[in-house]
Amino acid sequence: NIYLPNQTNFNHTDLNNIINQLPKPYIITGDFNSQSPYWGSEKIDQRGKSIERVLEDDNIILLNTGTPTRINPATGHFSAIYLSISSTSLGQRILWSVLPEIYDSDHIPILMEFLTSHNPTKTTPTKWKLKNPDWTFFSQLVEHNLENYSGPSSAN
After folding, report:
1. Which residue segments constitute the domains of the chain, with CATH numbers given?
2. How far apart, in whole angstroms, are the C-alpha atoms of residue 112 and residue 89?
């Protein structure tokens, strides 16, 4: 479990150092005090950019679905600052959700259900690999698909 106060300096290497020390499979949960549309915030902050950079790794999954994980008791504003991150092998077997009960806290309870057998219908959030893109392959793929595109079908 991680707690990062707002005033704490934090960058992607800090989180990578933590992850590299963990035995696999692992789950990291906690209050990251960060914002990114990737996990349900309307904007992104510097800490969110750092966490997104770590999430570009092929062996890491963000379990959050975009559902708020905190409510500000003073304003009633919802946010998603509590994150759940796991190794890919474990994350593919976890159903992540929040509970509707708040229990007199600004923290919204998170429920992680572990599937006892692999469920091929479970989908993980779409993740784009932006490191080292193969632009030649991408261009060829786009050209090929455009050649075979016949336009939108008309709806009756």
Report:
1. 2-117 (3.60.10.10)
2. 15
